Amino acid sequence: MSSHTELGVAVKNIPRADSAVVDGLGKMGAATVHEAQGRSGQLDTGIRPIQQDVCISGSAVTVLAQPGDNWMVHVALELCEPGDVLVVTTTSPNSDGFFGDLLATSAMAAGVRGLVIEAGTRDTVELRKMGFPVWSRTVSIKGTVKNTLGSVNVPIVCAGQYIIPGDVIVADDDGICVVPRTRAESVLAAAEARIGNEAETRQQLADGVMGLDIYDMRTRLEEAGLRYLDSAEDLE
Amino acid sequence: MSSHTELGVAVKNIPRADSAVVDGLGKMGAATVHEAQGRSGQLDTGIRPIQQDVCISGSAVTVLAQPGDNWMVHVALELCEPGDVLVVTTTSPNSDGFFGDLLATSAMAAGVRGLVIEAGTRDTVELRKMGFPVWSRTVSIKGTVKNTLGSVNVPIVCAGQYIIPGDVIVADDDGICVVPRTRAESVLAAAEARIGNEAETRQQLADGVMGLDIYDMRTRLEEAGLRYLDSAEDLE
Amino acid sequence: MSSHTELGVAVKNIPRADSAVVDGLGKMGAATVHEAQGRSGQLDTGIRPIQQDVCISGSAVTVLAQPGDNWMVHVALELCEPGDVLVVTTTSPNSDGFFGDLLATSAMAAGVRGLVIEAGTRDTVELRKMGFPVWSRTVSIKGTVKNTLGSVNVPIVCAGQYIIPGDVIVADDDGICVVPRTRAESVLAAAEARIGNEAETRQQLADGVMGLDIYDMRTRLEEAGLRYLDSAEDLE
Amino acid sequence: MSSHTELGVAVKNIPRADSAVVDGLGKMGAATVHEAQGRSGQLDTGIRPIQQDVCISGSAVTVLAQPGDNWMVHVALELCEPGDVLVVTTTSPNSDGFFGDLLATSAMAAGVRGLVIEAGTRDTVELRKMGFPVWSRTVSIKGTVKNTLGSVNVPIVCAGQYIIPGDVIVADDDGICVVPRTRAESVLAAAEARIGNEAETRQQLADGVMGLDIYDMRTRLEEAGLRYLDSAEDLE
Amino acid sequence: MSSHTELGVAVKNIPRADSAVVDGLGKMGAATVHEAQGRSGQLDTGIRPIQQDVCISGSAVTVLAQPGDNWMVHVALELCEPGDVLVVTTTSPNSDGFFGDLLATSAMAAGVRGLVIEAGTRDTVELRKMGFPVWSRTVSIKGTVKNTLGSVNVPIVCAGQYIIPGDVIVADDDGICVVPRTRAESVLAAAEARIGNEAETRQQLADGVMGLDIYDMRTRLEEAGLRYLDSAEDLE
Amino acid sequence: MSSHTELGVAVKNIPRADSAVVDGLGKMGAATVHEAQGRSGQLDTGIRPIQQDVCISGSAVTVLAQPGDNWMVHVALELCEPGDVLVVTTTSPNSDGFFGDLLATSAMAAGVRGLVIEAGTRDTVELRKMGFPVWSRTVSIKGTVKNTLGSVNVPIVCAGQYIIPGDVIVADDDGICVVPRTRAESVLAAAEARIGNEAETRQQLADGVMGLDIYDMRTRLEEAGLRYLDSAEDLE
Predict the structure, then answer these.
(1) In whole angstroms, what is the distance from residue F110 CA to residue B30 CA?
(2) Model pTM?
(3) Chains that touch B (3 or more CB pairs under 8 A)
């Protein structure tokens, strides 16, 4: 496979991760998944949710769109399956509102779980009411035209991450993480291991045990040369 | 009329659109109004509401202020009528908090419906409690002085749009649109026509009919050269 | 004291303002405190709360961290006392998620009232549920390492303000203000005076009295040369 | 005239200011012209020249283009006359390269003096060699399509200023100022008066006379309450 | 190949395009190459050259670095061959100065043609004097540490483009374009074809022939509905 | 000393570092000085020089100005001595042109070596011709008023650094570094030591010796777990 992004094509069939794995990653949350896969896969922090307290996961159906033109989103919707997440980027930066309540109605009918878009969305009040979650860079009243081809289900770079159709998207209030499809299962296992460890730690911290002790940091801090001073008067 | 923006003047009487038209536009929402007037009139997407789920419309009372100086907002309030919206810009970019709960109290007493400001606001908790809606670029604790003249009710550029006093402002969660006063009636008619068409479309989409079919896109996509591929293996 | 910021040190004991003064400032809100101390002390408006309708005050425990490294936050927590606020900056701009629900658990156990950070936070859903308030520049799923020393309780510049450990932080929905510890008492007095004056003014404004009259602005406006025009036709 | 911006039109004939006045303004420089017309007319500081040490003036031929589409620039070139300056904006923010050496060749053949664009340019090496000056927000290798209509010679907002075709543009290393056509003559007179005053002042300053004395600021500073302290020890 | 980016590895041998092809692309310039490969491959416009009038091409040796840590650049230099271009990105946004005159000395000794970095550089005066070209997001005096592993010669996303080691980089004053290695030859052919066509067009334009005629746009404009108006009075 | 920034004062006498030390630091360059003082003191990278190939050092005369108001710069000039550098910040972000050729004439007459300003400058062509170097955030044609007091020679935060009057400023093409006055001598010594070490290293690197060997990195890389792979096929 070349890293070339072909324009004017729509790939109908894409491989997807096992649905239990996809759902399992969604229960972990984006930050845990990011950590579990070796601190990689984070989309740019400028992509923000339009809603609160929602976490989704799904298989990426990718859209490469032209600025100000959402034609390819329509093409993509027909290729979606239940459990998918639309992931949209543009060939150059654009803030227009590519997506609104009508497209969301269609997406929900197809079982799409949400939208991640490196551009703008609109109808945010209705989208929240409908329960269709969106992560976007902007909110914009400016709609789009349907004039120029892009592509559907080709590998794209969206918000700084390379995303292959069928990769797993995990998105919540904290941001978005992409997990390569072929690693989804092992990342889920690593994430579950992390979650398991946290419960006991949380209780200890709540009881006032210092993280310095729980994580055994004191020796390393000393080795690194940290000097404790009694007061500001001891500063150079 | 010249495009010159005079400083040091306050125009007392401005023409306003018919109140039924203004109110009608407010029921359409900013995105629909933007579309209905030929996709124009959008204010910059960086101006964001401090509240959720509020849509207003009103006649623009314009303020050209100096950076860090809200003197002209006080002058403007005396010239407002019920149904107006304050629209404030500055002579150079400024993030200070020009507007807070005291000014909002005064504005509400005058029947002002809201504020759109290419600068900052403060007292956001109180403003939300009072139900006085604000769209601003920043939220800032820094108040302003009252030292240098600007103007009231002169044509201004605010957030990328040219706004003549009396133009109609429609603002909601998605953003802000300005409608020239002289076009308000025809834009309302166009917007109402759009809304009417959407109900049936929405039902079809909810039933799973593809937008590609409803909007008859398949032929155009084919003419534009879209190629459907069975799988990623068919990519170049 | 030099303005030099020493790396690799942690100061154990810092002076704090009287707790009644700290709490009193918290009742005033950040904007009033900013105004009361002569319109100074505002942190950059890009630092935003992750929650709504929360106002805190506390004594600053300062952290100078390396980009992508929250080791010093762990060191700082051990040095916190009830009523403190963590104030974290980095040696160069960084958007990573330095702080999450585990650190918040530890912080709450220590009586820390909140976090102000010139970087990112994560676990925002949990933090809101726990009631631990945070003001940050970004929200990010990317965690941090624990490899390189910074300092704790040294003077820092955070979001454009110079902050000495023990200075008082006031943070709410509108932003953040720092009050030098040695001025906290006099600033509180000035703030209380301001608040007292506002009640009557608010009632007058609600009754429709013009701010132009309450603040006696008409003469100054005339002296400054403001010209009232009857209509736009009178513009140059 | 309405503030409505019509799409799909090209106005063939526009009024222009007297060429001696246009040229005269070009000799003043953008900052002096801005000051002379009452500190108004400044385009956003983010629009920067791609060359150094060039100052131009000319009559604005305006282009409202769609994002990523420079079709209207081609239409505009046919309507240009010697002494014009192309002023291009887009219906939503766009960074693409709308203009390169081929368009510049055509523009120079038509006597166009330069380009001001709220978007991107390319072929900057060639443009500098050709001596065709450009002020743009970005430099971008991404070319544009020719698919969607905008307008030529309609009033536009470009970089925060309202510009009517035929208004005078003055652009140099410091930025860009627009002068309404109807005020061009009076602004030139005011600018010339300013320039005249500066020579003597400059000599005095070079001789070490303080601006405080030349501009007679000492009394006003005292009235404003400025306190001179002998040393930092006298600070509060 | 998975889209997973592995940390802690350095790949010693990478495939490279034919050197004649690489050099040929460098003669075309970034904008022409971008156009020739179907308007794809553009790196973000915020990455700017520190020098003027320089165009390079080369095979990408990729570096994935940690914020504020240039250790992997040292590792990469040993793996470079004459004709390579260093392409550096970080795991989260960082503005530090990763590269200066010492690294440039080493790079030039290895035959490296330049650096493209989604972060900062320093010693810009010396780099210009040495003739080592750099494209970076920032210029920064802040050096970096050498503490945490990243990777060398793994696929990366740099400035919005997915870059596989051995892909061809073309960078000049207008920006940067990446060409997938496997397409380099065909893109070069397409670029050469474009260049050939331009000479005649340029002469016609210089002679005053309208682009509207050369590119045969008049019919399409008419079909699209462009209306020519005699004057502004004919606007709606 | 409190961290309070008093408004409305001008401190006449400030301590300055030994002029030989100040000049010595200027010969080191900003990046070397930054490194020599423990990687601290860097001003924000967004403050850029308007000229190339200039390095200055000097004693900071600080100005805290109001947005859009350069009155305090006039006050400051009278308090400057030969060898000083003006360092200007504003009470909230502002892009206006605070400084032009007249002020530069006065500054040069007083022996001032340059200007560092967290705001805008103008007359950049003339300033370059005069040889008066400026580092600013913006270039702007918009002049300023002289209406509201700030302060001169009080401690300020400028571009993210706390600067006490008399601290040493080193500024060049790469950026700006502030050295606390009381540390100037020791920082100079450390910087000179660094420079001395570099000559030999540079020669080795030019001869093709790897930095990995010169800096003895191979063992540490191995300990950190770096794995060399023969080719991309060995990636996970």
Answers:
(1) 57
(2) 0.96
(3) A, C, D, F
